[in-house]
Amino acid sequence: MLEPLWVLLDRLLWSGQASGSNPLAVLLRVLRYPFAVLRDLSRGQVNLWAIALVYNTVLALVPLLAFSFAILKAFNAHRELEPIVYEFFRPVGESAAELTARVMGFADSVSGGIVGSVGLALLLWTLIATIHKLEDSFNYLWRVEQPRSFGRRIAEYLGLLILGPLLLVLFIGLVHSTLQTGAVQTLSQLPLLEQLIHAGQAVAPYAMVATLFTGMYMFVPNTSVRFLPALIGGLTAGILWAATGKLFTELVVYTSRLTIVYAGFAIVVAALLWTYLGWLILLVGVQLSFYVQNPSYLRLGLVELRLSSIELEELALKVMYLVGSAHTRGEVRWRVNSLARELGLPGIAIAQVAGALERAGLLVANDKEQLLPGRDIGHITLLEILGVARNQRSGHEQARELSLPAVDELQRRLEQARRDCCGQRTLRDLIEPAPPGPPAPPEAG
């Protein structure tokens, strides 16, 4: 039902009025970002990932806290998790304290006998599966096709589970110690500074949420995420978290119908609804940070990109030409994102073609994700480049071989014409064409 509206807004935001430096053009270009995020939300894929993460949260919340308890008990700091859990449930209203007490009680009882038992393996499996689902959702929104390897996943996930609670409690402890120092206590007696300190304490939970989101946006996707896009996504998600939390609290307080319908289960329903909204806000921030780093995707969105065979051949030749030319002339080396901006295509199209060329040995990527020719450009034939573009598989089973002489003859002649056109020409011949020969002598008259 909303599709005609998105089409109309798409035409407006990418019309000729959006080009230039006048205020209207700048405003239209800025509005592309919330438009793209809301359009993707309306089409359902982001909502499905949020629902899946709610299910995993129900399975992993108590094990996560129990594992954190088991680690923090060694430092006698496990009770520091209680205010964090309360902040998570606070938007559900008066039931937040009851939910916090129940979850903390469950986690405390589980963590008491978890070390050295079979339950430890099951707990770790639940936690790793949940973090893996979170990584999958981030990779989906970042259009990352290759997840972390199994060994890297286990090492990084376990490191996060062990170091995460320690760093969080250390941060809270440092803040408390700073607020209790004599200098701060003296300054807090001043009326203006006292108001600033109270305001800072009120904003601190949301600042912590924004900081946590920013860190997740940078390190969870299996790709390179710059700090500024992650920060913009984190701040936006933090503001949405604060605003939505207040609205949800008011909804729970003033909506008596929820209690009437669900009776004793109302607290569970409210907790699940808030968990869903929390994950949805987190994924909205992911999507926004992706668009800030990759504005070429704004118009395409989450729609799968399908290029024709002619477009694939042309794109493969252009990628190899630009990469080979920059390498030969010592210019700045190309990356997937810079190629996308130069060619005016979404990065996924460049990434797919570049990946196929890498697998064929025609391209290589260094540690900085810069693209280089896989071998000397004088030994890369144009037929090889076209062959890589032509032979990308769709994933479907190969059609049954059926000999049709007329079709087979036409295919043979087309292939022969292509070979005759390219001959033995290489990428070097394309980049550095041979100078024209001397003019032919005039004919004797």
Order of helices and strands: HHHHHHHHHHHHHHHEEHHH
Share of residues in strands: under 5%
Number of domains: 3
Broad shape: elongated
Overall number of strands = 2
Distance between the termini: 79 Å
Radius of gyration (Å)? 29 Å
Q: Low-confidence parts lasting 5 or more residues at pLDDT below 50?
A: none
Helix content bin: 55-70%
Instruction: Kindly report the average pLDDT value.
Output: 77
Order of strands in the sheet with the most strands?
Answer: 1-2
Helix/strand-derived category reads: mainly alpha
Quick overview:
This protein folds into three domains: 3-33, no CATH class; 44-297, no CATH class; 310-392 and 408-431, Winged helix-like DNA-binding domain superfamily/Winged helix DNA-binding domain (Arc Repressor Mutant, subunit A).
What report would you give on this structure?
The chain has helices spanning 3-13, 23-42, 45-72, 81-89, 96-112, 118-141, 150-179, 182-187, 191-219, 227-254, 257-262, 266-293, 309-329, 336-343, 347-359, 382-390, 405-422, 427-431; strands at residues 363-365, 371-373. It is mainly alpha-helical. The chain has a two-stranded antiparallel ribbon. It is elongated, with a radius of gyration of 29 Å.
Protein traits:
single chain, 445 residues, mainly alpha, Arc Repressor Mutant, subunit A, 2 strands
